[in-house]
Amino acid sequence: MMLLSLRLLLGAVLAGTFLSLYVARLELCDPPHRLMVVMVAGFFWVAGELLLPGLAVLCRQWRLLQGAVTLTLAVLATCWGCPSLFPESPRWLLATRQLEKGRKGLRALAEGNGVSLEDEFYSQEHLLAELESEGAPLPCYHTLCEVFSTRVIWKNSLILGFTAFIGSGIQHCFTRNLAPYLPQFHFSYFLLAALEAAACLFLCVTVNRVGRRPILLLCTILTGIASLLLLALTQYLLDWIILILSVLGIAYSQAVTMLSIFFASEVLPTVVRGAGLGLIMAASFVGKAAGPIMDIQNNRGFFLHHVVFASFAILSVLSIMLLPESKGRGLPESLHDGESQRRPPLFRSSRRRDQLPLLSPQSAGHASEAQDYAHLVTATKKMLSSHRRTPPRDRQLLLEPTPGGDPQQEI
Question: From start to end residue, where is composition biased (Basic and acidic residues) (predicted)?
């Protein structure tokens, strides 16, 4: 019982460490480099998965393996006490009104980047002058409960948590089809790690060029198609076709999970990014638990499990269209920024040849100027005619000075 409790505590600590590192990396990057930094961290994660079996072979015993992993985590824990190695996010400090700590963090980042604060542009009149003039307001923290009272933020979180859950849970439907072709455990383990690296590489190449929402939609559609084909035609397909569909389904489902988490980190505001992203990652972990649960049940009810997740994958295609696009945009800071995000059109409308204006822009401009001049002439004539019809006595009254001393303007 004690060992089980310690294992649960270790899992919770590792999940919190992964979440905090993910958010810190994201908030320290500018929009063009956010995806690349997150995907490079994903490659390091895959490298750790590939090195773990070799470390297990060297240690031979699980106690030695646990000690080696704990030693690595202890080295990582030392970075927490060194702000230069693991700084606090200035974005979060400023969003929560911790201006003094945010100012120190920005100065540390500027000095680390080699920016001279003695220059005229970075003097006190320009750099952080607004922060210093605000005084010292009280910090304002936000909780996850505030997300439930929003509309757009809650909708985006629910959709992305749903897609992350599907991407993690449907992987068991594909890995089970690989069991007859991959009898050795080590080969299947390395294949899953290699497919995860391929999914990271695919996202690196496509997401910054096309956008977050179209690639997530494409990966979800391909995952659903592969799942439906295996669900309906497994007994009619050749073995190599089943193997290819299973491999592609695993790769695309992993891409769906990774991109859902990354997409959520960009659309959630800074004040609740950690809490909201933790909720979405929890949904992903719940989906991963479907595999071990099915193994405990000796794969009883696997057909129903496959039908449910394939249906969810098709349903998520419709919900992804409701998401905003975060490509090339800054991270939202407050709840108001998160609520102001709007869904762009899925396809860009292109003007066809038969929709071109009959007049050229230059002639249209001349016509507009002539029309404005005609309106001006008409208004002037009306004003002059009304002036002529006004009796001289009334006209003199209109020109008498007001109590303020200025003569009234003639109507």
Answer: 331-342
